[in-house]
């Protein structure tokens, strides 16, 4: 459920008409709903009711500080995957002891920054990384809390580019080697081993892969405890999928996911962390774009938008489907027609949808890409010297620009010309 609904013939974000935002900031832009962000966070938080838990929002999904602050004020922690994300979470006011640091290639500088600024835990992905964290912790005179990310070798049944829990993926340590790796970690005086971490992929639409993985984590918890490790925190990653199309079967709900966690892991008495990203931000954001031209092609009509693959790369990168709706509500019974919906970037990959049925549209009309809140703005680029598009946050009947569109001067002046030219 989200808060982008038609009212009086036009699409609204909460109580703000989309066309009003478009008039104020120009197109294209991203717009997020505070109420939807909070609702999704609350669904997860409630799903783990009765267990000691922390929902750590995976901020790589949408990392604007206004979004982070909205969620942090509701009680969320953060899952970060780079030093930049760590600093950004801190800048948004998230305390270090609510920040979890994940990622397969943490550099010494990133580790030092997090250890100096305070960190809830590192989710360690390899023994070489363990050694580096240990050395830096000793140098700083602190003890680094860690979990080890295990790779449970389960098929997440999702797009290959976002599956992370199979043994051929680069993530985590093989679960079969866990005893050895935990013994190594326990021997390092700069580390305190507190738990286990697992994250098997993104956009999972079934519970079964989670069940397989979490069952393995439960077994591993008992095994490691019997080997003398004080396993007291389980970080279960993110990955619960969202409905991108209305037609598709709906993915499991957070409450069902929470029930699965209780069933598979509840008896262990561990503190539970989860790291949802997409489900919190995905349906809380739209990308709004304007029709520039309608071009008749050979047997098809092209809708050429001012938004492009550099603004929303998911269709080009993951063959992702996004619902695209007219901002002006189509009159009842209006006949739809198929369009190929494309951006202006100079490659055929810049295609958002083929033969998509839409109401008749004309230049100047606005369209909204639904489910664009996660892995949208954060993956955008300035390819074709197209400025990063603004982000807007709506709260009831208020809205604010939370990232400005840069001017062409700002973009162009970022280059420096060497003196020999
Ligand atoms: C990307 C990622 C997440 C979030 O995944 P979603 O599918 O957005 O919920 C959580 N944890 C880790 C370690 C990740 O890399």
UniProtKB/TrEMBL annotation:
Domain named Orn/DAP/Arg decarboxylase 2 N-terminal: residues: 36-281
An annotated GO BP: lysine biosynthetic process via diaminopimelate
SUPFAM superfamilies reported in the protein's UniProt record: Alanine racemase C-terminal domain-like, PLP-binding barrel
EC number from the UniProt entry: 4.1.1.20
Keywords: Amino-acid biosynthesis, Decarboxylase, Lyase, Lysine biosynthesis, Pyridoxal phosphate
Domain annotation Orn/DAP/Arg decarboxylase 2 C-terminal: ranges: 29-373
Active-site residue numbers: 346
Residues reported in the UniProt entry to bind pyridoxal 5'-phosphate: 239, 275-278, 375
Ligand binding (substrate): 278, 314, 318, 347, 375
PROSITE patterns (alphabetical): ODR_DC_2_2 (PS00879)
Catalyzed chemical reaction(s): meso-2,6-diaminopimelate + H(+) = L-lysine + CO2
CDD domains, per database record: PLPDE_III_DapDC (cd06828)
InterPro entries in the record: Ala_racemase/Decarboxylase_C (IPR009006), DAP_deCOOHase_LysA (IPR002986), De-COase2_C (IPR022643), De-COase2_CS (IPR022657), De-COase2_N (IPR022644), Orn/DAP/Arg_de-COase (IPR000183), PLP-binding_barrel (IPR029066)
CC cofactor: pyridoxal 5'-phosphate
GO molecular function (one): pyridoxal phosphate binding
Residues modified as N6-(pyridoxal phosphate)lysine: 60
UniProt pathway: Amino-acid biosynthesis; L-lysine biosynthesis via DAP pathway; L-lysine from DL-2,6-diaminopimelate: step 1/1
Family: Belongs to the Orn/Lys/Arg decarboxylase class-II family. LysA subfamily.
Record note on quaternary structure: Homodimer.
PANTHER family found in the cross-reference section: DIAMINOPIMELATE DECARBOXYLASE (PTHR43727), GROUP IV DECARBOXYLASE (PTHR43727:SF2)
Function: Specifically catalyzes the decarboxylation of meso-diaminopimelate (meso-DAP) to L-lysine.
Protein name: Diaminopimelate decarboxylase
């Amino acid at each position: 459920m989200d808060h982008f609904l038609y009212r009086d013939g036009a699409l609204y974000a909460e109580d703000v008409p989309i066309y009003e935002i478009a008039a104020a900031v120009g197109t294209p832009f991203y717009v997020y709903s505070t109420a939807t962000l909070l609702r999704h966070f609350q669904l997860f938080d409630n799903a783990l009711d009765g267990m000691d838990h922390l929902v750590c929002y995976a901020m790589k999904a949408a990392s604007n500080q206004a979004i982070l602050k909205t969620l942090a004020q509701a009680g969320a922690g953060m899952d970060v995957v780079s030093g930049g994300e760590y600093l950004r979470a801190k800048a948004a006011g998230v305390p270090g002891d609510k920040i979890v640091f994940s990622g397969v290639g943490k550099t010494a500088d990133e580790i030092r920054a997090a250890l100096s600024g305070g960190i809830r835990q590192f989710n360690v992905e390899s023994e070489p990384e363990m050694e580096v964290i240990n050395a830096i912790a000793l140098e700083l005179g602190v003890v680094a809390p860690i979990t080890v990310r295990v790779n449970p070798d389960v098929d997440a049944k999702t797009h290959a580019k976002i599956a992370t829990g199979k043994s051929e993926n680069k993530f985590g340590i093989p679960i079969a080697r866990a005893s050895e790796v935990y013994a190594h970690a326990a021997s390092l005086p700069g580390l305190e081993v507190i738990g286990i971490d697992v994250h098997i992929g993104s956009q999972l639409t079934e519970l079964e892969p989670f069940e397989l993985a979490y069952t393995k984590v439960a077994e591993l918890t008992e095994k490691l405890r019997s080997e003398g490790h004080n396993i007291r925190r389980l970080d279960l990653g993110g990955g619960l999928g969202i409905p991108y199309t209305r037609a598709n079967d709906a993915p499991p709900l957070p409450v069902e996911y929470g029930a699965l966690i209780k069933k598979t892991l509840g008896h262990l008495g561990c503190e539970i962390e989860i790291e949802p990203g997409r489900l919190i931000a995905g349906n809380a954001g739209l990308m709004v774009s304007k029709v520039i031209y309608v071009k008749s092609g050979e047997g098809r009509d092209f809708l050429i938008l001012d938004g492009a693959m550099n603004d929303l790369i998911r269709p080009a990168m993951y063959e992702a489907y996004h619902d695209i709706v007219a901002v002006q509500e189509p009159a009842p019974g209006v006949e739809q027609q198929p369009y190929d919906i494309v951006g202006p970037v100079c490659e055929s990959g810049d295609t958002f949808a083929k033969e998509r049925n839409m109401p008749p549209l004309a230049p100047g009309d606005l369209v909204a890409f639904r489910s664009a809140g996660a892995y949208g703005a954060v993956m955008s680029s300035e390819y074709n010297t197209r400025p990063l598009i603004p982000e807007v946050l709506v709260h009831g009947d208020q809205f604010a620009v939370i990232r400005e569109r840069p001017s062409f001067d700002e973009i162009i002046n970022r280059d420096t010309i060497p003196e020999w030219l």
